[in-house]
Model the fold of this input.
Amino acid sequence: MSELLALPWHEARAEVSPREYLDACLDAIAARDGAIRAFLHVNRDAAGDGLPIAVKDNIVTTDMPTTCASRILSGFRSPFDATVISRLRAQNAAIVGKTNLDEFAMGSSTEHSAFGVTRNPWNLDCVAGGSSGGSAAAVAARMVPAALGSETGGSVRQPAALCGVVGVKPTYGRVSRYGLVAFASGLDQIGVVTKTVRESADVLGMIAGHDPMDSTSSTHPVDDYASELEEGVRGLRFGVVREAIEQLTGEVRENFDAALAVLRGAGAAVEEVSVPSISYAIAVYYIVANAEASANLSRFDGIRYGHRSSSARTLEDVYADSRAEGFGAEVKRRIMLGTFALSSGYYDAYYGRAQRVRARLRHDFSEAFRKFDFLLTPTTPEPAFPVGAKTGDPLSMYLSDIFTAPANLVGIPAIAVPSGFARNGLPLSLQIMAPHFAEKAMFRAAAAYERETQFWREKR
Amino acid sequence: MWNAVIGLEVHARLQTRTKIFCGCAVSFGAPPNTQVCPTCLGYPGALPVLNREAVELAIRMAIATGCTIHHRSIFARKNYFYPDLPKGYQISQFDEPLATGGSVNGIRIRRIHMEEDAGKLIHHGDASHVDLNRAGTPLIEIVSEPDIRSAAEADAYLTRLRQTLMYAGVCDGNMEEGSLRCDANVSVHREGEPLGTRTEVKNVNSFRFLRAAIDFEIARQIQVLEAGGTIVQETRLFDPNSGETRVMRSKEEAHDYRYFPDPDLLPLEIEEEWIDDVRTALPELPAARVARYQNEHGLSATDAEILVTSREIAEYFDAAAAASGNARAAANWVRNDVLRIQNERGACRLSAEGLAQLIRLIDAGTIGSKAAKEIFDEIATTGEDPRAVVERKGLAQVSDPAVIREAAAKVIERNTTQVEQYRAGKTQIFGFLVGQLMKETRGKANAEMANAILKEMLGG
Amino acid sequence: MNIDREEARRIAELARLDLDDDALVRMAAEMTKILTYIDQLREVDVEGFEEHTAEATPLRDDEPRPSLDRSSAERNAPQWTGGFFVVPKVIGGE
Done:
């Protein structure tokens, strides 16, 4: 049975009935999740002849709780399904459970969950990454063939990278946000985690498309994402972001160079390109994202749902105590930063300025895409780190997003593909970025690389 | 010599079927929390989608007040915590509102912007009860420049503004139900000196209260300043029982609303074509009608104002004036009688055409004004065609000179004493003789004609 | 950018977060460190750059859609009576 879950879904489907496959997933979860803790909630009664899939617990479901890994949502049951959930159900997907995350998707290690940390299947002492650590670990441990995560600064690609699986961030507006609990509305997108590129292309095709319930969702037509997977990269132009690799050293650098060699070997043109403002991306991200988050999280006030402090006597207590008790330290920190960045006297210097630097970053990316079909960086500056290694230093944790955050700020699609392993056995990952709505080409490039390397087949 | 400087901020509820950002019906009197959905409840994952009709109505009012409509305007989040505000922010407009720069009654309008209403808070002993049915109702906020100089001027401005809103079908103008809410900013200064500090007087929700509150506040501020004190910038509430304003909260603790563009909504784009269509479809507005009634029909300004009290009345008048060919008469009947019946009984069932018929009957001499007044109340109740009533009651005047002469001859023959007295110079006895003539014709003689003929036959 | 305890207190108040003195001091230090990193944005030349979306917000027809059954709101409410959400009495009013 575990061999079954090691196969790409469309191959496994050819061998067994949907019910057997679904049972294999549920059995794998029961057998393996104790040590990994990818799931916050498992639906053992999940049914559906289609794709078994796990969903990050910041995507609302009517038939299971939604906690966002936060105490402030204890007891909450959403009265509506997210659009992506409705679409999956309409295609007979079996939603097997809700996965763990950093609280409200704020983090890069899933250590900021109120319900325990998700472990990296490759090394249980290490983090699975975040914030979609549960989704990445569930796929990496072969408990499910696919999982939905969410992206704001890299929260699907980074954990996918650390867990040795494929992680996709679609173009902003490609997938409906209706039902995704908002972190930073102008950056958030639901993303996909799978073992292989083909599976990601299939799943994205199941959820992508315009939604009238989301004003920011795009009417751009949905391509057949798996239709060019065999085309290869001959003649395609890849730009290596100079400012990203300048500081790269050691095995991450070697691994990245090896990936470039593979692409060249497959006929691609690979050159350096400058994206000058990219080094400011993290600073921009941590102002813009936290500012939007500070407003998005104001609705958690103990009045209409979730946790209300039992010691609250006055209205002010209801607000301040419920929120202080319900939110974890990282969430509070980000709300504070965001509130500050929007506050009177500081708006222009922080939020205003960050948005203008963001406009500049957009411009720099546009310029780069004139000459290149794709842009390349490693997905993360280092492989998975030990649990506890960075929780004492928020800023160092933020820097894990240094290669992923730019795509969120600019709105372009990006994919993380396994690129090998570090000497300590932990996965490494290559990131391919593409222009807006060029997912089909992006999958083509990623598939070509995957075809040459096949790292997804490695066993733990 | 003290001058008052007053500006009004008016919130008007738009007459749409659904809320501004969700499809919940806007209806009054529904049981609490039954006209709600995830979006207007501020549930996690919910998103706003803008109501086209709300924009249409906002455009209408902007055109009706001579504002410049901005082709691009931005929704912004106004962040503060209050139990009737589910998201912890109100979606409003800040830096880039829908419209600016109009005027009403010579008072300049600074801006008109769109926003959502909050829910309702009902106090209940130690607790407050929250009903979110109203949350998300579309509003426009109309902000005047501080051009108003007195309570009377404020009344006139608000009257015309309200009329305009109702004429344009934008708002039902019902102040008791809160469809129209008004806040006043008031300051005083000595002639020739700089402007004073202003206070805000909130929720003055009837014309009477508005005048009383402004008068009180002006007097209060003058009193404070004359005694050597200073005016504190603060928010005050008008208490109708005492006729006084009292402090609500000091603006020192004024909210830092941390406005920023709402990332869940893209910019609102309004093309010139839309504006043109709305402008074409606008009915004739009160100010224009008042001018026309004076110019075309020679009506006084006072009468013209009464006729434009509501669009319904104005259109009724127009129809009656056109059909009868006698605008002055129509004006008098509407002003004195139609409105009276409406006030007394709630409705006048005499159609404009019916009124025109009545006027034509009088103008043709078929009935006298006295008879007309007599049947008016009846036809105002039944809506019957006045010609039918006149026929049925046999009220038609005698306007045939021959018939009157014959009757007059009889009167002269029978009252020889009085006739001799009249011819001898006792002219006041004419009244008695006219009375006899009216009796002879059973009151049906056309009074004017009877007078003239009798006088002639008496040789006077 | 330096954040001291008082500034942290002001921001916590705006954000309705009840933080005790120790927490405020810690938060102030963390924010200072992060904002100091973010202050590098001051050196970027942003002349001529404004964040601008080309797209327009979509508009919805003014057609009523079914509202939620009240039981959903009730089920999730921390405190509820007779169809209303309940909060401690609001003093002062808005």
The domain at 2-234+414-420+434-457 of chain A is CATH 3.90.1300.10 (Amidase signature (AS) enzymes). Chain A has a mean pLDDT of 96.
